[in-house]
Write a structure and sequence with these properties.
Largest sheet: 5 strands, mixed
Radius of gyration: 22 Å
Bound molecules: ligand F0G
Number of helices: 16
Length: about 450
């Protein structure tokens, strides 16, 4: 392992949590009990957990201090006003409405704006955003450029929306579009950033068609950092100013604070329209709580307020993005193929290229998650045929998504260079003997979101 691939952590460790090692035999038993589905594993039996970067951040000493000073008043808590001020300073919108997590922010927004025939475009909708739209019988449409789906296209802003598609789309369907969304960074497209030039164009098109424009902002700071490093004219801007600039083009945002607010639970909606804000608050009271706590404790609001400021620290963002890229460099050396360039929060391994002997209908991505756990105790998540494959009810044949990925999502401030070196070595060992990995078949599955609970068996 080359330690030089990795940045020096801009923090020291004040509190530690032990992680237990398990034997290969123990892990094999756990896999069988879980029906070869890593969502079914007890987390205690996982050595390095790269299932998600959501809600898995390590909080700082100052965030923990905020936990102790949170004001738990039902209405008008001091912690709310502090949180509201921080969000207003960074995002620049007038109204700040807390929710218990990102999908709750999506729910209160979409329940308020969607009608039966509504269509909501985005670069690529995240699953919960799509589900929150589709469950209300509206349509979610992805308008990312074609390169967003090409794992080999090395582009600085592969998360961009195709604005000519957006223009044509609004020309035809504008009256049915209550809001245009933009996911930064684009989680479902390899964690790739969106440029300010693209944001500016999307905004102009939306304004011309009189359609509100909202960010799905959960990784906004990572996106702003990429703009600073990659977009001409912003090299000397602070990340805070770039973030402000990004949001200045929009009418609002939904946010899962479990990512770039560096907390384990929380979210919010923030927006400018007073009438819409009032309707969202009424909805919030029914499902989440009074508008000064929205499903959270006062201490959570303190931790979010502090986390939102820490995430804009540029030495943190440099460390964060270089840590992910460093893992990518080690995988390059080991000839483990992945979606290029490295994303802001994750590396997405191209499982069908790594395991060419396993056909798509034997789930190469799923097989890789099983092998990684069995050999090394590492948990990753498949984003391929298991998650997005669809069975034709008549023929029983599976249709597969374009890409067969395994996401290694890196929790924030949690793992060191040696942890990630171990991850790279484990994948390298699989890449040296791919023929040892077996394909799988599904033996049990739910009608929706089957990957969470499906059971598999290995094929010899
Ligand atoms: N939007 C994006 C882009 C996300 O990545 C997520 C969550 C959400 C919204 C929903 O937020 O979980 O707080 O309700 N992504 C996690 C992941 C689950 O693993 O990528 P939430």
């Amino acid at each position: 392992m080359r330690l030089s691939s990795f940045p020096v952590e801009p923090f020291k460790i004040k509190m530690v949590e032990s992680i237990g090692r398990t034997t290969r035999a123990e892990r094999d038993k756990c896999l069988r009990t879980a029906g070869f589905n890593v969502f079914g594993l007890p987390a205690e039996k996982v050595f390095i957990d790269l299932l998600t970067d959501s809600g898995t951040s390590a909080m700082s000493d100052r965030q923990w201090a905020g936990i102790m000073t949170g004001d738990e008043s039902y209405a008008g808590a001091r912690s709310f006003y502090r949180f509201e001020k921080v969000v207003r300073d960074i995002f620049g919108f007038a109204y700040v409405i807390p929710t218990h997590q990102g999908r709750a922010a999506e729910r209160v927004l979409f329940e308020t704006v969607l009608g039966k025939n509504s269509i909501v475009p985005s670069n690529i909708h995240f699953d919960t955003t799509r589900a929150n739209i589709e469950v209300r019988k509206a349509k979610a449409v992805d308008l990312a450029a074609a390169e967003a789906y090409d794992p080999d296209a090395i582009l600085p802003f592969k998360g961009d929306m195709d604005t000519s598609k957006l223009e044509a789309f609004l020309e035809r369907n504008g009256a049915r579009v209550p809001v245009v969304m933009l996911t930064v960074t684009n989680n479902s497209g390899g964690g790739q950033p969106v440029s300010l030039a693209n944001i500016r164009r999307i905004s102009a098109i939306c304004r011309r068609h009189n359609v509100p424009f909202f960010f799905d902002a959960c990784r906004f700071a990572e996106n702003a950092w990429f703009i600073k490093g990659r977009e001409k004219g912003y090299e000397r801007w602070s990340v805070r100013d770039i973030a402000r600039k990004m949001f200045s083009f929009a009418d609002g945002a939904t946010m899962s604070a479990k990512k770039d607010a560096l907390v384990n639970m929380g979210g919010f909606v923030t927006l400018n329209d007073p009438e819409l804000a009032a309707r969202i608050k009424n909805n919030l009271i029914i499902g989440e709580g009074f508008p000064t706590y929205g499903g959270l404790a006062g201490r959570d609001l303190e931790a979010m307020a502090q986390g939102l400021q820490e995430v804009l620290d540029e030495s943190y963002l440099e460390y964060r993005t270089r840590q992910v890229a460093g893992l990518g460099e080690l995988l390059d050396e080991a000839r483990v193929p992945y979606f290029k360039p490295a994303g802001g929060h994750a590396i997405y391994v191209l499982a069908d290229r790594l395991l060419p002997q396993i056909p798509r209908n034997r789930f190469p991505g799923w097989a890789l998650t099983v092998a990684l756990y069995r050999e090394s105790g590492i948990r990753a998540v498949e984003i391929g045929g298991g998650m997005f494959g669809r069975k034709d009810p008549k023929t029983g044949r599976e249709a597969f998504p374009a890409l067969e990925l395994v996401r290694l999502a890196i929790p924030r401030r949690v793992y060191t260079a040696s942890h990630l070196g171990f991850v790279a070595e484990s994948l390298a060992a699989i890449a040296r003997k791919p023929e040892r990995v077996k394909g799988l078949r599904i033996v049990e599955e739910a009608p929706f979101l089957r990957h969470f609970t499906a059971r598999f068996e290995e094929i010899d």
